[in-house]
Amino acid sequence: MRLATFLLASLALSTPALSDEVSPRLEAALAAQAAGDLKAAAAELAAATAALNAERAQRLEALLPAAPKGMTQTLQADYMANLAMIGGGTGAEASYSAEDGSYATVTYNLDTPLMAGMAAALTDPNMQMILGAPVELNGLAFYDQTSSMTALADGRIMVTVNGSDPATIRKLAETIDGPALISFDAPR
Questions:
Q1: 60 vs 116: CA distance, rounded Å
Q2: What is the CATH number of domain 65-182?
Q3: Top-ranked range on mean pLDDT: pick from 18-22, 129-133, 183-187
Q4: Do 29 and 45 contact (CB within 8 A), yes or no?
Q5: Contact at 8 Å (CB) between 115 and 109?
Q6: ∠153-102-173 over CA atoms, to 5°?
Q7: Is residue 114 within 8 Å of residue 172, measured between CB atoms?
Q8: Domain ranges of the chain
Q9: Whole-prediction pTM
Q10: How many Å apart are CA 170 and CA 90, to the nearest integer?
């Protein structure tokens, strides 16, 4: 119990740069835990985690590539809600479309069941032989499957670019800032 109090206090004292929703939730969790209300403490911690994930999703969304010339970008505002329905996690997605009917989608997934499964596949030597040699673009190693390109950034962020045209897919993949994506949730 003292360890939980110490951890919560450490988090509460070290969160001035976090969103306004996180600190009050951590403080409420501390108060509930001190009062012996573990149910409320757990609920407040879950709410703080959800607020942190929302902030992480905003940072990921800011790193989605701009639309290539002749295409329009549409951010998928409900992407986090969709992830919640399939087990949770953090992510961001944008779709790109052109008047000629061509389209593409860029997706970032972090801490999702899908990402966990794909991470296992992308790091398996047998799967790597099937997928072929990765293509290095801006600090990311993409596996090019013609209609999609997939990379695992920093062993924790799955990057997927798919669509109707391999040239557009490649162009979008080339504009993803790998180093910025890898450090998106680091202190600023």
A1: 18
A2: 3.30.200
A3: 183-187
A4: yes
A5: yes
A6: 20
A7: no
A8: 2-59, 65-182
A9: 0.80
A10: 24
The predicted pLDDT at position 88 comes to 76
Contacts of 113 (CB under 8 A, 6+ apart): 86, 87, 88, 89
Q: How far is CA 104 from CA 3, 82, 84, in A?
A: 48, 19, 23
- Pick from 184, 139, 151: which is nearest to 161 by CA? 151
Structure tokens at 175: 């504009």
CB atoms within 10 A of CB 150: 22
Share of the chain above pLDDT 90, in %: 56
Distance between CA atoms of residues 84 and 63, nearest Å: 21
CA distance 67 to 172: 8
139 three-class SS = coil
Residue 83: phi and psi, rounded to 5, are -65, -40
pLDDT digits (tens, 9 = 90+) for 61-100: 999 999 999 999 999 988 887 777 777 788 999 999 999 9
CA atoms within 13 A on the CB side of 56: 21
Q: Map residue 61 onto helix, strand or coil.
A: helix
